[in-house]
Amino acid sequence: xxxxxxxxxxxxxxxxxxxxxxLGLGGMILAIAALLLEPAVRGSFSYYVNGLYGLLxxxxxxxxxxxxxxxxxEFGRSFTLLAGGGAIAAVGVAACxxxxxxxxxxxxxxxxxxGGLVLLLRLLTEREKLRQWRALGGIFRHLFISSSAxxxxxxxxxxxxxxxxxxxxGEAAGVLSLYAVVLFYxxxxxxxxxxxYPGSDAPKAGGTDLSAAxxxxxxxxxxxxxxxxxxxxxxxxxxxxxxxxxxxLLMVFFSLQMLAAGETPLGPFPRNWLLLGCSTLFxxxxxxxxxxxxxxxxxxxxLVGMLNITNGSVTLRNCWRTARKPGETPPPPLxxxxxxxxxxxxxLGLLALLFGTSMLLPxxxxxxxxxLILAANGAALFGLVYLLLKLETLLRC
Length: 397
Fold this sequence. Notes:
mainly alpha
């Protein structure tokens, strides 16, 4: 009886808006970073600050691409905003993978956190909004307190980053811990507000209707293309490379896919507590691997290899079933688009199998070839997002 009740609870789908989930993930990154920073300052182990920079930049980029929310406020998700988010994500990916690439990521991250000053000034000067919040009272008072605290701690974090060694200073751990608590607080407040006022979490209208799942795929495609291109000079010995941080970042992308749309290497699943628990475990492993790159290389290499082989096998099986399944012939535009989607998915399945095999048998495939496989996988994912958007446009017509 108890086991069935527990399973029923795990399969229940909680109300978790994407913005609350992103803030929770941000709080998790900062909490783990603060927890590991204390022993690192004492010299217990080496702390990879570039991994922290890269993680935070990718999260800022995802918030921009998926929600249209930037360090300077909320805007419509225009193509300019998507390009800006993509550029920040590219800097974050490069920061994670290349230990020597540190100054530019630090300055970009400083600018992102420094936007807290602009957000705080906007909050305090928007009198009509403050009047409405005061009139509504209750949870909106908590929204004012939590938002103000987040913006002030964002500014304090920017000041820490202003000092080149600030991110590794002992006092930074306290600031990061407090920042994590405040982010969890804001996430809980927004979750309740969005529950009480359905539709208030909808992204601002802009130039694109990119869904959360497509936003993750877009950033994942960028990650794979950039990583694949970086592996070419790395294989020639021209660049230093952190394989542990690269694996960690990939785990965080897997976590974002589960969080945003319930997508896993085994296919889509309902966003229940069990899936969100797996997403949290993936994120935790990825964050730790980004901060302590040598710690989890072996288990994450095995896990990522198996996940890619599983994903490739499932994709090819679905393609095989689709090819054998008879059905009605759709109109010519849809038929042509469907054929292109089928080819892209078939290519993605084959590339996932190849990449997974190269992870499990590193001597079988040269590192340069692995890089080209990754870049091709990223290009195919980008093509998939483009075709899905085109399909949605055709279906609306």
